[in-house]
Amino acid sequence: MPSTPAPKNVSATRIFLRGLAISLPPILTLVILIWIAHGINDFIVQPISWAVRSCIAQAVEKSRPLEGLVAPDGLPGLAFKDRSYRLLPEDRTRLLEHLAQANESTRENATNEVRRHLEDLAFMPLDQRAVPYADYRDAVKSQGSVTKPLDVMGVYRELAATRYFQSLFHLSAVAVVISIVTVYSIGRFVTHRLGAWFVMRVGSFVTGVPLVGAIYAAVKHVTDFFLAEKDPKFRHVVAVEYPRPGIWSLAFVTGEGMAECVRAAGEPLVNVLIPSAPIPFAGYTMNVKRSELLELDMSLDQAIQYVMSCGVIVPTPTPPAKTANGVAEPPSLPGQSTQPAL
Fold first, then answer.
1. Phi then psi for 131, rounded to 5 degrees?
2. Which of 61, 95, 214, 216 has the highest CB neighbour count under 10 A?
3. 264-296 pLDDT, tens digit each
4. Class (C level, CATH) for 232-315
């Protein structure tokens, strides 16, 4: 049997490129997933977490007006914030009397006992209000190395995460569950006639607001195209000759063409979105003659994969081109005869 030829020497550059080709897909996938996760966290999870913490803070806050509280003259400082706390006058009087009753041998024990009482009786001033010393201390400690000025509600928002959820992670998990349940509930609500009517009325009101209405209408049409159950004839993928004849570009059919353009063209037009790789939701929108569209047997998901992969992922194999006398012929357009012209 003939011997197997020895493998050729592979250069270090080629080995590196092979390793890059293997490692880049999982790395880029991870980067995209992290980017999506950051967006969800910043615009969905964190706002819901903040709302939950604010509701709990409103329910459990124990602040009181700063008026009526006095400085701790004659009382020992505390481990946290020393002597910047305030007290009710009767509490200060009672603690001063307790210290006055101590002699030299018992003064240290009496002072420590007063400090323990102060942790329950003292208040920390915040603007025109004051919060219990223990609440303020725990809230500042929960911030860790990132210390920022706290107001009354800020104190109890911090405590809502640490006292009632043990950590921000647990609160974020609750926020994710709340967001999923909310979206599902909205979907269930709009499936009923009353819910659909309510959503329609809200949409009509928002679209009537200057500037906001234009943005809302545009975003709603785009999300409806990719997510809602709309007319299938406006949810398919085509190819158009763009930017010049002979170059085929993938496009999404998004709706009927503008009436003025249809009258000028003298035939039906459709709106198409020609996506730009690797972002399928960005690109060019134009009116194209319906007769010049090439229908593609491709779903929206497959088209998005095609665009995001810059053409690397092709859903269906390219059929062999028809030939006439050895010359390749372009694919026929809808309504175009395959017979040679006389």
1. -115, 155
2. 95
3. 999 999 989 898 887 777 788 889 999 999 999
4. mainly beta
